[in-house]
Each structure stands twice: as structure tokens, then as C-alpha cells.
Fold these 4 entries.
Entry 1:
Amino acid sequence: MSHVMPVTPHSSSDSEGWSPQSWQSRQALQQPLYEDALELASATGRLATLPPLVTSWEVLSLKKALAEAQEGHRFLLQGGDCAESFADCTSPIISNRLKVLLQMSLVLVHGLKKPVLRVGRFAGQYAKPRSTDTETRDGVTLPSFRGDLVNSPEFTPEARRADPQRLIQAHAHSALTMNFVRALIDGGFADLHHPEYWDLAWVEHSPLAAEYRRMVAAIGDSLRFMETLAGPIAGFSRVDFFTSHEALLLHYEQALTRQVPRHLGWFNLSTHFPWIGMRTAALDGAHVEYFRGIRNPIAVKVGPSVTPDQLLPLIDALNPEDEAGRLTLIHRMGNAAIGKALPPLLEAVKREGRRVLWVADPMHGNTETTSNGYKTRRFDNIRGELDQAFDIHASAGTRLGGVHLELTGEDVTECMGGARDLNEADLDRAYKSMVDPRLNYEQSLELAMLIVRKSVGSSPR
Ligand code: PEP
Ligand code: CO
């Protein structure tokens, strides 16, 4: 997907007793209990022989691009499902998700006047952290559903058993997804070049309708102008696209951690850009141990309870040499908490002169449950947290370098609000998420336009 870029060798990969399995001597939270160690060993043994999903040169070229984002020369758009499922590994779901991400990125490129780095939350986003290990219904207690990488959501003992074969199935579904995404990108999405083909009926419902119509018309004009000058724009049909997932299930990640010819160290070749979730980011835990030794660019979710005293040692552990592009911090505070929680972290990292890319996840701090039992998020809270994030970074003299969103290209009704003002009753119509509520196609595009509107004006250039 990308070309090879020169990189500086990284010396710490094999240092201080690290190995792809050294995490096993630490406490590993959120791991399933496999009943049969031999069955697990046979599945991970097989997985370790299967081809990787990405290449080391793609991984290193993403790290370089993230370094450019740290300098303010690019903006990161990272998005996709909360949890992928094997059942959703279908042509329309994959292509619609890719389409909305590419359309959003065109809106951002045009508005922010800088290249957008596109990273999907897919081709491996199959494992989920859960608040409890077990679930009880009518007096029956079974293991919690932990994502298709581990078990199955139906409430039966067979379905909830942690099945090592799923490690191999997840790899296969990730490969199918990657293969289709790469083919779509290489072939080009015809209607990407023609915003007049985008589904924009929702714009009429927005108070900003006139402004949005002007924005979309201007994008169309720019694309046509460039195509007139240069012919069909190769850059739009061969856009770089990278993958990411929460590297939660460490047996899976370990089996796909490889050495390659002519590059030092170890690479996680299950994805370009793995991240550590909020629940597994303890400094002395297994996830931090695993992540410190891989050469990928990595991210960590940072929630509202994290203090500067906790964050700085984590940065030291994960990026001791202050390598450019290596570390992204994804803050996910909530619209109500961000004003208090974020500034001290920005100040501490700035004071210490540490190099990070700051990204806002305005989804995970804004989850609530409605009276009719749906897990939802309000568009106004998502937008509010993002607006505040831009302002807080601007006044701290730091830079918000990207956004991390849960979205789908489908017409679901999972988040409330947006131009069509979805309400509690609407959630019944098309609530499909197995885990967290996602922005639908329209809400995603609207948010991209709001990001442009907000950031032109408040972020340091
Ligand atoms: C997620 O990204 O789906 C997730 C579980 O996030 P967090 O770790 O921030 O809660
Ligand atoms: Co989620």
C-alpha cells in the first residue's frame, strides 16, 4: 500500500530481556481462560506459521507519516467498528465502511489543507475488554462474550467457551478484509471523485445546510480542476490506507510478531498500528511489556483518571528514546470531564518535551444507557468533546493531530442526534452494534464537516 521509506535503526527492541513472550511473566488482564493448553499451543503454533497481514515496510512508512503528523503536517483519521464480527466480513459492509472513511478524509483534506492519514479500525478488531469475566442470566453464569476472536455471543456454554481455533479464523477473516480493502483501493472508488454522487440528503436537515453544500461543491470543483489538469488523479485511487486494532489478546499478537530480513527487531505484523486499551495500560502489566518491544508505531488510550505521574513513566517505558512517530496518545475523557482531565496531561508532556501525537476519541467517554436499555452516545456530546479538545490544545500550545471514531458506513441508529436528530425511539429501528454505538454514514460525514469548521480557526497551524 505504501512505498519503503528510510528509517533510523531502533536499538531498544531486544533490550532488557524482552521477547515476544516476555509478557507472559506479567499480569495479563482481559485474557480468556483457555481450558486446554495443548489445544491453545497447537492453534498459536499454526498461527505463527501463517503469512503476516501487513509488511514491515508498510509499518515503518506509517511511523514516518505519524512523525509528520506530530509536526502538524498531517491529520490522522482513525475509525471503524467498536468490534468487528466474522458475520460482518461481507462485501457491502467492508466497502461502505471504507467509503465513508475515504469521503470523510476528502472533507478533511480539503478543509484542513493538509494530507490526512487514514487508519481503519479493522482487519483484526475482534477482541473486546469486558467489565466482568462472567455474565449471569436467570441464575446461569457463563463466561462473558469477549469478541469473535475468543468466543461467540449466544448465551450457551458451547458458544461462550474460549475456542483457540478462533485465533486462526480471526486471522483468516482479517486477511479476507485486508485483501478486499487493498483491491478496492487499488481499483479506485469511482464515486469518490464525484461528491454529487455522495448520499447527502441529510444535509437538508442541518442548520448548516448552506455551508455544507458550499463545502461539498468546493470539493467537487477542486477534484474536477485537478483532473482537468492532470487526468484521473492517481493519488485518489491509490491512497495509502493503514489498519489498526486494540492488541488485547496477547497470544494472538505474539504469534504474529515476527522478525524480517534486513530490519532490526520485532514487528507485530497482524496490523500496522496496534493500540493499548484503557483497561490494560498498567505500567507493570503484560500489555505494556509486550508493546515496548515491537517496532510498530503504537497508541495508548488515556482516560480521565490518568494523572501526569502515571502518564510520564508510561511514555518512558513505551518510547524511551523519544523516537518520532512511535507513540500516539488517544485521549477519551468524555464531554463532561475533558476540561479538567486533559490540561494537566498536556502540560506535563509538554514540560518534559516528550514527542507524542495527541488524538481525540470523543466516543468512549460519552457512552450512556437509555431508559429503553440501549447503549448510546449523543452526537452533541461527541461534538462537544471534540470542540473542547481543539480549544484545550490551542490554549496549551499543543496540537490535536487527529481523531479516533467508532463509525460504520451503514444506516444504523445507534448514536442519538445529528442533522436528522435521532431520538431514543429511533434506536429501535436499526441498532446493530454488538458492543458500542457507532456513528452512521450521515453522522460521520457531518462530524467530518464540523471538524473542519472547528479546527480552521482554533488549532495552531
Ligand atoms: C474501544 O476502543 O472500543 C475501547 C474499548 O476503548 P477504551 O479502551 O478507550 O475504553
Ligand atoms: Co468501543
Entry 2:
Amino acid sequence: MTDSIVFLNGTFMPQSEAMISPLDRGFLFGDGIYEVIPAYDRKMVGFAPHIRRLQNSLTAIGINLDWSEDKWRQLLSELLRQNSGDSLAIYIQVSRGVSPKRQHGFPDNIEPTLFMMCYAIKPPVNYDDGNHQGLHLVSQQDLRWRQCHIKSTSLLGNVLHYQSSQDHNVDECLLFNEAEQITEASSCNVFVVKNKQIFTPSLDSQLLPGITRAIVLDLLRTHTDYQVLEQNISLQQARSADEIWLTSSTKNIAPAITLDGEKIGSGKIGKTYKEVNSLFNQFKYDY
Ligand code: PDD
């Protein structure tokens, strides 16, 4: 296998040569943030909103790395140019940097560590082709921290939720808070369709402001007559939904067909999903 090319602190290099100190606060504390940007045939989806969210996450945790969009675009294009593959995720991670010693407080005068790599993702799945089933979900109480709007590398809560869905032999978990309202999935946002209305939880600190979510909302509002509502969705509403979709940069829009072993709607991939997915494939590079 050929070594992929990564970017670490200003230098492109083979992945096998990239080394980070064990005193990096990303390693010691999960003290960092990240982004995942999809690129198909070297074209990125949602470059500008991903970079804006990266800046928001940096500001939220007090890391100063105020690069222009142009600078990011240049670096990411170069990273894509140096790596092969038609369906890639660009991963960007910024940690607070290397500590002189292990201490909780922010050390003075350290430089952030910036690491970027590409990895292969599945090309967009066509759930219409008869070869792909929809996803199966299990509901779980959301046990993560209360700042899920920050795209933090401290993902242990998400990792444990995801692994538990795998242990239940399903694809993802549908997370709900103490009030039994849906937040998101372990690595995706959630949409619910009921009687020609499309719902997604409104943005707050319990969920990530997903870029795919934002694109889907914009497409629905611009190109369809559906009523689109950002508001609380109870677990009970999810159980009686006609359709549920998950959205993320690596899954695009994925329809779910069961929740806790019960069919969602007809238990088949829904017609609204097919409409929105075709809009997404048509317009995704406009974002
Ligand atoms: N995850 N919610 C969570 C908790 C996520 O981790 C993600 C994405 C999303 C969807 O956001 P977006 O549409 O911007 O990808 C929602 C990425 C893909 C990951 O961690 O690999």
C-alpha cells in the first residue's frame, strides 16, 4: 500500500514520517477540535461552511489560528492533489499544542498543532438501486457532555455510543436527552418526516451544527414545498415517523428503516428521502 501524504505543522510528508509529541494536549486531554470535509473527484462539498465551523470551534476553546479561507483552500487543494482516491474525507485537527508539562490550565505561548490527512470514504450510496438496505437504529439516552456544538476531538462519549450500536448489531444510535427529545446520532444529525412535514432538532449545545444538515435544510427550503421545521422532536414522535434520515459528511443522507427493531413508517426507503437525496446529488457542489 502506498503511504498517504499528510500535513503536519507546515510540512507535507508521508504519513509514516509524521510524529507528534506525547505531551501534545490533543493526546493528553483531547484538547483540540477537528473537521471532516468530503471531496469527490477532488471537489469539496461545503468547503466554506466547514472552515467557518472550524473557526467557531477554535474560538470556542480559545485557540488562535486565524487563517483566511484562501489559505485553507490552497492547503486543502494541495493535500487532495498529493493523495489518490475519488471519494475522500479531508480530516483537519488542531490541538492546543505541546505542553511543557502535564497541567490542566492552558500553557502560555505554545503553538497549536495542525494535522491534516485524507482517507477513503464510501462513494455516495444509491439506496434506490435495490442493493442497499436502509439503516437500523437503536435509541439511547445521550450521555455526552453539554457542549456538543463544538466539534471537539474529545469523542469518547460518541465512540461509546457508536460502539454500543455495533454491539446491538445495528448501524447507529438515535440519542435522546433527559426530556426524551432527540439530539442527534453518535456521528450524524437527524431528520424526521411526518405527514409532509420535515423536522430536525433546532441548534443548541446538545448537537453539532452539521454542514450536511444545513445543506439539506437549504435544499428543502429552496427547491420543495415541504414544511421544514427546526424544533424539538420527542422520542415518541420519532417512533411514529414516516421516515427518519441521518446526515453527515461521510454518510451524506442515509435513510433509516427500523428503530429499536420496529419498522419506521412502511419499513422501506421513503419517497421524501429519494427526493431530497436526488437534490443533494444535483446541488452539493454549490455549497
Ligand atoms: N461527524 N453530529 C456529530 C456528532 C458528528 O460527529 C457529525 C459528523 C455530524 C454531521 O456533521 P457534518 O454534516 O458537518 O459532517 C453530526 C464526522 C463526519 C466525523 O466525526 O467523522
Entry 3:
Amino acid sequence: MNLPNLEEARKRTLKKSLIVKNNYDFKKIVKDQKYFLKTYGCQMNEHDSEEIRKYLEILGYSKTTILEEADIVVLNTCAIRENAHDKVFGYLGRCKHLKKEKPDLIIALGGCMSQEESVTQEILNKHPYIDIVFGTHNINDLPKLIIDSKNKRQIEVLSIEGNVYEDILYSRDSNITAWVNIMYGCDKFCTYCIVPYTRGKQRSRNLSKIVEEVKDLKKEGYKEVTLLGQNVNAYGVDLNDGTNFKMLLENVAKTGIERIRFVTSHPWDFTSEVIDVIAKYDNIMPYIHLPLQSGSDRILRLMGRRYTKEEYLRLFKEIKEKIKGVSITTDIIVGFPNETIEDFNNTLDIVNTCKFDGAFTFIYSPREGTPASKIKDNISKVEKEKRLYELNDLVNKYSLENNKKLEQKQVKVLILGISEKDNNKMYGYTETMKLVNVKLNKELIGHIIDVKITCAKSFSLDGEII
Ligand code: SAH
Ligand code: SF4
Ligand code: F3S
């Protein structure tokens, strides 16, 4: 349960994980009871929630989207930024209130925040109404913790990363597009980032097990898989048997599943061979999320990203040249400790050069236990906000410019469902991961259709079915 320091964490990466078959030795315990599951954070957490949901369903709980109806509330939390803490504890306040009316309500907290020792301590000391705390390495303990929580509070968070589980069952969000975990954890230790501490060392899944999972999904009718990892390009490195991401991609492509995506790509491990495989197979989508973080070499070095602005640009150019029609999005952090105006202008420069299709932008948030959090920072919050606005304006300008190029063009869209904002519309994604809305025709949900783009906006496109 301790938050390890950098050196300890690095040493731990030398140990080998066990590959274990997940064992479903539990059955229905409740009748007519409901679960409410709320997920924060990244795709990894979204996918973990699909595992959590499966366990809740096996125990007999059915889903509700109304908190007040719940007999068990599970919050799957994220720790990437400081404000996540306040959001989650704010929400827990509502749960606490509900528990006063419903004393049998079970409240469970999982995810990356549970892996922070300070959070677990805070819960132990100040939040007695939380019945269960579980971490990212023992999600599969949840059924047992729920059963045992009837008698006693269950706080069980593992500090050493868990085994590599195979044959996990999921209750998936969609029957069209599926997440597929290819690896757990991260070994990169970017100096600002908490993920290596909350998710542990990198552990890759077995290649043939991943391919088997994709084949099964295809048989079930899934049209798309997204391979998930914090650094998909480093897939296999920890297996020490020559397995790599290029081999995995090629094998997944050969299953014939219609669309393959992957997130996230760290520029450091992105090889030319991987670019060639993406270019070669039509079912590997021409879309890459390639986090930049900063355009300043000085800041990149302080962040421990291990590439320079020039190296990023070289990779960007190779991807653009080799993969026809590729779209590239990125992540950028502004206001890293002591980021100067010159550093920030270097970031704007590279955005002007790359003209990204989209970018997730963040103000740097100090995370306890990370090396960057120890740097004394002399930049004010107001200045950081100003930089974020300026960056966002630039990023949005290029998103719109890129989207405008698609007006009156024909694109292929995988229709995923009915739009939440407008029930008369359906939504889907182009091969290049652009969100498209078209008129409702329920029979087309789950199909890849030809669409003519009629109007482009910064964050979505309107189209007509051809
Ligand atoms: N593994 C991925 C990123 C996962 S976290 C990668 O390296 O590309 C998603 C994004 O959150 C990061 O790319 C980064 O831009 C942002 N992020 C991570 N830690 C942060 C912090 N302490 N403050 C602000 N943004 C952060
Ligand atoms: Fe965090 Fe860096 Fe790992 Fe991404 S690569 S999860 S930013 S440590
Ligand atoms: Fe958040 Fe954990 Fe993902 S910290 S971004 S949920 S890996």
C-alpha cells in the first residue's frame, strides 16, 4: 500500500509477474438489487469498469444510472490530476448522505486513487462510511470483498503489482467496438506522472491470448477493437523473448477484424517497422494519438520524455509520409514547473508545424511522490491558465481547418449508436477517428457506411448517408 519511491519502483521492474487464469469461483448472492458504477479517468479505467460490472452482475446486481436507486455504489477513480481527489470526495459526500437513508448501502472505491497511500489513510481516518477500498491490482478480489463487507470493512490495496490475468470476463459497454488490454502498467516514469505508481511496472499479455480474444470478439460480431496500453509501442519488451508491437499488430490485422485501433503511443518506442505495418494493412486505422507534452527540449528533458522536438518532428513526418490520410492527435501539458515564455512559444511553434487533428491540453498538476512535484515552481496559476487558453485557441483552429478539408468528401463511418444530444441522430467515427453525426436509421447501427460530410465543426462533423 506504500507509494514507492522512484528507485524502489524501478527495481521492482526486474521481477517477473505470474500469468494466471482468472478464476470465477463465486455466484449470485443478491436478488432485486442494483449497482451504480461511476468511472473516472482514461480508457484503461473504462475497460476495468467492464470487468467490475461483470463481477457485480455475476453476484446478481443489475445496473442503475440513478444513484438513489443503488444498493451498491462503486467509484472507479483516476489520480492523474490533483482535482480528481476533490471531485471524488465531493461525490462520496452524496453517497454518505444516501447511506443515512439506506444503511445497507455498500460504498466501494477502486481505481488509481486507491493506490495512493494518502488517500487510503484519509479513508481509514475520516470516511468510515466507505465499506470497501480495492486497488488496480486486485480488481478480481472485489466479489470476495463485497461478500465479506457484510461483516467487516474491507480495505485491500496491493502495493506490488498483480499478476497478468488471462481469460478475464467482461460485461462490455458496446457490442460493436471493444477494448482489448495488451499490457498493464508503465515503465517510463515521466517525472510528472503518477501512473507508474498507481498501475505498477509494465506487464505485457501473451500475444496468442490477445489474438485469441480478438478472434472471439470478431466471432461475436464486433467490428472494431482498440488495443490498450500506456505505451503500446513498448508491448513485449518485458517478455524478453523478441515479442514486439509490430508482431502483435500484424497478427491482430490477420484476424480480419474490420477495424483496429490502439492507444497510447509513446514517441520513444515508435519504430519504422510499426509505421510500415500500419500502412500495409487496411484494417489498421490511419489514426495515431502521439503525445507531445511539450515543444521545448529543456522541458522535455525535465519531464523525462527522452525525445527532442526534432526527434518528435522526424517521427511525425515519417508517419504522415507513409500512412495515407493519417490523422494525428496529441496531449500537451502547459505550465510544467518554471516553464518560461520561450519554452511555451516552442510548444506553440510545434503545434503550428504539426497542425494536429486534435489535442488534449492540460495544466501541469503536481502529484505527490513524483520527482517533478519536488521542483519549486515560480509560475502563477493565472499565467498557466492564460497559456492554456492561448494553446487551446491554436489547437482548435487547426482541428477546424483539418475537419473543413473533409467537407463534401465521402468517408467511411462505423455507426455506434444514437446520439445522446439529439435522439433523431446517430453517431459514429471515421477511420481517422473523427466524430460524425447522421440522420437516425437504426438498422445501420453497427455497420460501416459511406457518408458525405456536409458541415465540419472543430469537434465533430455532420454528414448525409449515401
Ligand atoms: N501513457 C500516455 C499518457 C497517459 S496520461 C502517454 O505517455 O502518452 C494522459 C495524459 O495526461 C498525458 O499524456 C499527459 O499529457 C497528462 N498528464 C499526466 N500527468 C499529468 C500531470 N501531473 N499534470 C497534468 N497533466 C498530466
Ligand atoms: Fe505517465 Fe509517461 Fe507512463 Fe504515459 S508514459 S503513463 S505519461 S509515465
Ligand atoms: Fe487516471 Fe489511472 Fe488512467 S491515473 S488516467 S485512471 S491509469
Entry 4:
Amino acid sequence: MAAFKRPGELSASAFGLSFADRDVGGAAAAPIYNMNERLALTEQRRRLPIYAHRTQLLYLIEAHATTVVVGETGSGKTTQLPQYLHKAGWTGGGRMVACTQPRRVAAMTVAARVAEEMGCRLGQEVGYAIRFEDVSTPGVTRLRFCTDGVLLREMMQDPLLQKYSVIMVDEAHERSLATDVLLGLLKKVQRRRPDLRVIISSATIEAEAIASATIEAEAIARFFDTSNVRRPVGHVEALPAEGQPPSRSPALMSLEGRMHSVQVHYLETSTSNYLQSAVEAAVAIHKEDQPGDILIFLTGQDECEAAVKLLEEEGRRLQRSRLKWRLQPVALYAGLPASHQLAVFEPSPRGVRKVIAATNIAETSVTLEGIVYVIDSCFAKQRCYNPLTGLESLLIAPISKASAQQRAGRAGRVRPGHCFRLCSEDDYESKLPATTVPEMQRSDLAGTVLQLKSLGIDNIMSFEWLAPPPAETMVRALEMLHALGALDGDARLARPYGTQMAELPLDPPLARMLLASGEMGCTAEVLTVVAMLSVQSVWAPGGRRDVDDAKARFAVAEGDLISYLNVWKAWEESGRSKKWAITNYVMHRSLLRAADIRNQLQAHLRRLGIKPSSALEGASAFDQEALATVRKALAAGLFINAAKLTDELQVKLSDQDDSGASIYRLVRSAGGEAAAAKLRIHHSSVLFRCRPQWVCFYAAEQNDTGWYEMRDILAIESGWLTELAPHMYRLAPVNTQMRR
Ligand code: ADP
Ligand code: MG
């Protein structure tokens, strides 16, 4: 067997990159491909680490109300455990097993894989459900993969989750907002339903990480301990007698892994351009001519696409150098169309080396075969909510060491692998935090609070949080819900708005504008806008002249939301033609999805007894009054995010920015941080080069430049604010209110 040659050294230095090595153990091995690939599915399943534990796992699940399963990515938790439960009879008697995922893509791909392993059509015995898309059949589906958010929403109809015998909360280590809420609620449900089994599964790698992850798992296990007798976590109980409930002390099980060693390399000095460095490192590895796919971790869709472009150019250049392997770059991120995703998951054909440029999504939740090299930028986009401004930031920040270890682990699935971290070892040690802050502690909680209230949990403060959110965030959520009319003065769910808003599968502001449209007689228009706001952008990726020109044809001075109405109308008039969409640089796929969402929301409105209406149908194109009705209904959901143009000095930001940035300030701010927040119009907005005096926006994010950039903007008249929200905005002389 040929010794495995360490990649990177020579070729990397040719690019001015040099990696310092740190061996994390394990002997080098000859390159072998994933031989499991050719094995029958049954045989593949038997080879997974979880297989040896299946009897013991089933025993624990039978004997304990809660079982925590810790095992590294790829050990078979997600795909196998639900199948074991199915085989063992947990899906008998018309009941189901649910398995929740924090990410939509994961729910879909995992369900597809399990359906394949069970030899059934997706949507039959095995199904999935994500928001606005339910691919399962009542009465037939036994294993249901869904996002954690979908299961939360199901609890509003079925608070005790009676349909399910087992709920598996997967990827619990990610600590998504909905997962944390779900865990808190499941603990409550178990008190009322002692027969319900909860499985909490979490990924981990390598000894170091297992140690810390187990502490986390133990914390979760302890959280679920409702027995009066304190037993050590992981204590195994006897099986309950026939008809008796299981033990309330949780079981803890670690699946021993099957990981190969991963050699970690660092840069000698941290790079200032990780995208470029990542591409260079990938090319360097490729030139070494050893087989194995490469996985690059970047922070967002744009970066992934940019990396793919750069790699394609490199690939063409390399074609002449007679390398054994052909370079095939692909991108993987959450918004990727399903058809493109397939290319990522399919095993590479002979002679092809896949280079996958991925976001965080590839960290633990989806299985990628054949990865031997990981290139880690050590960065990720981190969403963070600031309760003082009521705005979010989405900043590129260093990942945690726990994440970095997960990422490295992706290289060691098939055979010993390599992970290249694009920073120096010193920076890694000193600049990366140990763990990631749970989403619960850095999110806007208005939607969550509304859901909890509608589940009858009135005292939000005393809810058993796995990680309590900051008090300011809680207060802000209550204030916002009160302003929207969802809560009364005593912070109780108000009728009808509160209950109705909770019922709609939408953010509180969007739900509120739908309800307003019912009263103002323009449900048709607001449904369209809300549906368009619920999909990935309808515009083709921008930046090109022809795209911008096409967009300008639909653009109106009233802003993005009204421009969406124009797009919709034109698409409808074309007979929902794909050709029309292509010639107008509009994403047909997004429009189709919006149409589907629109139908579902329409059904929701019918159920709420809200009659369909339209303000613009039959009105002339210049009927400003009819249009104002629609705009007001939209503003009824967005008035909290109202901003006014200032006459503050404009700063010219870049050469493309010929107009400079107009500065906006929040109207609601009485002072403090909110007043200091500087907003401007995002370049994707149709109002980018305009200067409307008063606007409302659906989203604003602070980016790395420090600005808050508003997207999905609606131009309003100042009088509407006092008219729609007199409880929030008083008729003060506007000028003095805004002057500072
Ligand atoms: P875990 O949840 O423990 O991370 P999974 O159950 O997702 O593990 O995956 C177990 C194994 O199943 C993987 O190691 C892989 O071999 C196989 N697998 C899972 N999903 C797919 C897929 N979409 N295509 C091919 N193989 C897959
Ligand atoms: Mg999994």
C-alpha cells in the first residue's frame, strides 16, 4: 500500500499559502473509495455504528420516557433510529414517529433517503413536512420528518401530540430557537402523557468534543429528569410492566464512532481573503492528484457561487495539465433549487473530483459522501437580534471551536482525511469561542411568545427554558405584540387579533397585515405580497444591467411591496408563463412557490371567516385611492418598522454608489441605541436610488459596514402612522420629533 502523501505542502506554497500541521493521530492509509457505495442498502445499513446498538437503544426507549443519543455525524441516528422504531412496532395502532430537523433541506433529504431505504415512495409511509409544504399522507405516513417549527405549529391543533408515539428531536446540539422551545414544551407534554417517548439526538466528534458534547447532552438529560428520585444521568431502568409508564429519569447513550483520523492544518498567518485562500487551497490539493472530494465551508450563498466560478476557471486552466482527476465545483446552500442539490449528493463519477462550496448547512445536518478534504474558512454568518434597537444584524463572525471540530469531522468519514483551517493556530486558539450561543438568546422572540401564549402558557417568564432568553428581548417581544394588537394590556392573548395571528403560519407583522386586509377590503393584494415575501427573492440574481433594467419595468415609487404586485399581475396575465418569467428576469420557481403559498394562506383566511376582497380589481391603473388602501393594509403590519429620511450628511460609499447613501432613522425611537441606528436602502430595493420621505420596511439587517440596510420597503405617508397606530405614534410636530 502506498503511503498517503500529505497534500498542500508543495503546491500550496506555490500559491503563497503555507500550512502548519498538527497531527491529530491516526496512521496514513491508502486511498480507497467508499466501498459501501456499491453494497446493497441493507448491507450498508448494517455497517453503520448505530446498528450494533439497536437492541439496547430500543430497550432504553421502552424503559425511559426520554433517551438522549449522542453520536457523531454519519453514525445513523437520523436515518436508522426512526426505522428501528417502525420495525419495533412504535408506529402501530395508527400512530406515527416524528423526527424534527432544524433545517428544511435536512428534513427533505433525510426523508428521501429513508424512503429509498424502506423501498417506498416519498410521501407514503415516509413523508416530510416543512412550512407550506406537506409531503405526507394522513393515515398512511408512519415516519414523518419535519422541521422543528412545523411540529411546534402542530401543537396548536394537537397540544399533546396525540398522533405520535415517539418524538425524536434531532440535531439538538444546534440549539435552534424552535428546538429549544420544543424541548421545553415536550417536557410539559410528558407530564400529561407519560407514554410519550422523547428521543433527543445530538452530533459530536472526537474525544475532546464528545467530552464537551456529553456535558451538553447531560444538561439536556437533566432538564428532562422529572423523576423524584435522583439517579445518575445514564442510569438504566428496568422495563415498565404492561400498561405502566416508563421511568421518568432519562437515559443517555453514546454511539461509539467509526471515524477516521483527521489531520488538521493551519495557515502560518491568518488570511485576509478566505475565499481566495480557500480556492487556492482546493487547487493545491487537486494538483496533488490524490482522490477524494473537497468540502469548503464559506459563509453564504454569494461566496459559494463566487467560489464555484473561480474554481471553474481554475478547472479549465488545469485541463491542459493532464491531471488524472477533473475538477467539478458545486455549491450547496439552503436556498439552492432541489434539482441543483441532487448534483451535490450524487457520488462523483470516476475521474471526477467534486469540490463542494457550502455554507454551515454541511456542518452536521446533511450527509455528503466521499469527502476527504475539508477547507474551513472558520467563519459563518451569525444572526443576532438586538432588543434595544429591535433590529437584527447578520454579521460574518468566527465560528466556535465546537463547530470547527464538527466541520473537520466531515473529512474523516471514508478514510483518514485532512482539514485545512484558513487561520493561524494562534488565532484559532484565541479568537474562536468554545461554543455557539443558542439561537434562543440571540433572536427576536415575538413569534415564539405568541405561539406559547396561544398554547396557554401565559406566564412566559416562568416557562422552563433550556437557556433563558435575555429579559430585554422578552420585554420587546411583549411590547411588539401589544403594539400589533395581539396581546391586551395584561399581556394576555387578545381576541380576535391575537388568536388569529397565532393561527397563521407567518411572522406576526405579516399575519397582522393579512388580518388588516380583511377589514380594509384588499385580501387579494395583501395575500400576493405576503406570499411573495415568504419565498426566496423573485428577482433573478442581480448586478447585471439587463436584470436591473428588467426590474425597473416593474418598479414603482410606492416601493418593493407594490412592485411585487406588478410582477404578480404581469405573470398572471401571461398565463403564469415560464417563458415570460425568463424574458423578464424573474424567478419562475419562486413565483410558482408563491402561488402555492398564496393558496394555502387563502385557505387559512377562509377558515378564520375572512371574506376574499380586492381593492385594485376593476380599479383604473391610476386609482391612487385604491392603491392607498392596499398600502395602508400593508403598513398596518409594518408600522413598528417605520423610518424617516434625514437631512444628515450623505456619505459616498463607493464608486458604484453615485447617489451616496441617504440616511434614515427609526421613527419609534425615543432615544438610546434605537435612535442611533443608521438605516439606508439596500441596493436590491427598487427604491435604492430614490429618497422617499417616509418608509416602512419588512426587514433590515446590520451588515459588516455597520449600516442597517432596509429591504422590502413600502413608501408611506406620515399621517398613516398616527392613524394606524395611535397607541405608538402621537401627533407630535414631526420635525421636532425627528430632529437630533
Ligand atoms: P447521523 O444522523 O447519525 O448523522 P445519518 O442517519 O444521517 O447519520 O446517516 C447515516 C448514513 O447513511 C451515512 O453515513 C450515509 O452513509 C448514509 N446516508 C444518509 N443520507 C444519505 C443520502 N442522502 N445519500 C446517501 N447516503 C446517505
Ligand atoms: Mg443526523
